[in-house]
Write the structure tokens for this entry.
Amino acid sequence: MRVIVVGAGEVGTNIAASLDDDHDVVVVDIDGERVESVTYSHDVLAIEGDGTSIETLEEAGIDGADLVIASTDVDETNIVVCGAVKAVSDPFTIARVREPGLFHTWQRSERAFGVDFMVCTDLQTARTIVRIAGMPGARDVELFANGLVTMAEFEVHSDSPVAGETVAEADRYESLTFAAIIRDDDVVVARGETAIRAGDAVVVIGSEENVRGFAGALTPAPTIEDVDEIVIVGGTEIGAQVARLFESRGLEPRLVEQDPDRARELAERLRNTLVLQSDATDIDFLVREHVAESDIVVAALEGDERNLLVSLLAKRIGVDRTIGVVEAGEFIDIFETVGIDVAVNPRLVTAEEITRFTREQRTERIAMLEHDRAEVLEFEIEAASPLAGTRIQEVMADLSDRVVIGAIARDGELITPRGETVLDAGDHVVLFVDTEVLDAVVAYL
């Protein structure tokens, strides 16, 4: 497939890196330095030029393109790119936008703006934050099989009961599969004898109840249903969308915004959110408003340093869990080390959502882990599939040892896979796959 990516910033570069192994990728950017950088770092053709220009698109090979992804930092530019593309050819178009209003307009119109698929960065980031907040201690959470199967990633601390155990010893849950251990830069496929160490990240797949049970054993904390206090710091659009999503779950968060006009606007928009007009970096304010009693603090200010400061202050006064927006991808590991429990990068979230969409043409649902070092995917077994009527132990003999069958959904029920389990046509199978063997596995399936 020929893919043209317009915009070589953090989003476009991540998308190109995810697609260049399997596709003919062309990257277009108006900035010569970015073009030179992506030329040397990725196996792509990089062109310096304006992606809204027909001449530049023709130089990029628009006539033979199957997919065009507009991923610059300017919403209007991305929409114009898609419109220009549709004027001269008919590839599938994807646009990245930050403004939820544009996204909602596109949703309510059939292929508005010449955009076939649109990703709203602020809304996607807010959804990610709320999904992670809903699982105590989780670094990442995804749902499969219409919510029947949950995948989650947790960090193992030195005082965790599973630290020092093998996977077989830690497997105390009926409907839970240990898929992988992420250790430093390595992805270790979980086997019974695999040791779990402090500092590891553990990926598990299973029923929501059992995943929550495992989460509670790792990090005793209230579930989202038991949360009494959620504080959102920052009335940015991400902060506002996080509040709205919490409201949709029946919660009543508090939101702190320093600008009086913005605070007034948000108070009118968010009926079940208490909006406080103040500077949340003022520790006296945090103490006075009993922020220490909060179960979760979400830092959604403009500026990574301010979000780190708020998270550090929240930790200092006793808040258990902080989730912060970090715009600079290179700061994520540092910020999670020194003060933010979970750092969410809007550009990375957007890049992963766009990449996920391109790959879902082959499967039903995709989740990417650790910057695309591993994937969890869902697929349905068709009647003509050689997998139908086959025991899992026979299937695994034909698959790579870098694969784990995490769960099976059959007629609305969750089946925990075992060696003797027979796969049936119509089953939805959730599979953990090391990216190194992904293409071979998808071809086999």
Notes: The chain has a mean pLDDT of 89. The first strand starts at residue 2 and ends at 6.
